[in-house]
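Task card 7
Instruction: Convert sequence to structure tokens.
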Amino acid sequence: MKYTGLISKTLGALALIALFLYCSSQSGGTGDTGGTQTYTLTLTLEQPTNASGNPLASGKPVYGKLVAGSGTYTDPALYSGYTVFPSGSGTATMTITGITNGTYTGHLMIDINGNADTNNPLPDTGDYGTSSPTITISSNISDTVHAEAWIKI
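Output:
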């Protein structure tokens, strides 16, 4: 399996690392759903930090979703995941399963103020998100979302 992960996006003087995944070969999936091969996207999420390196999302929920084609964060999720950052520092793992071959747009958000609708989580002021990369799924994928990728909304 081949993929790339990390595109730089410049926002002012700060270079943010945006998650970008591209899978170029098909390998074993996670199961068979009526003849359709499905796959898993596993993300290791690093917490955003302040200038002193202290984590900003300790104990906060993280929502992820894949939407059709080049859809926006307000579009309904075709596939979704949820996790919580550990208290203190550390990473969290998000796993989204049952994904069929296709091209999606990925959206991640940290619900800093804890007010997201868990059935349709949307970011608001104070939350963190990432840029919204196009993700082509044709095999299982694992990658890391680095602390620098998170952007305060």
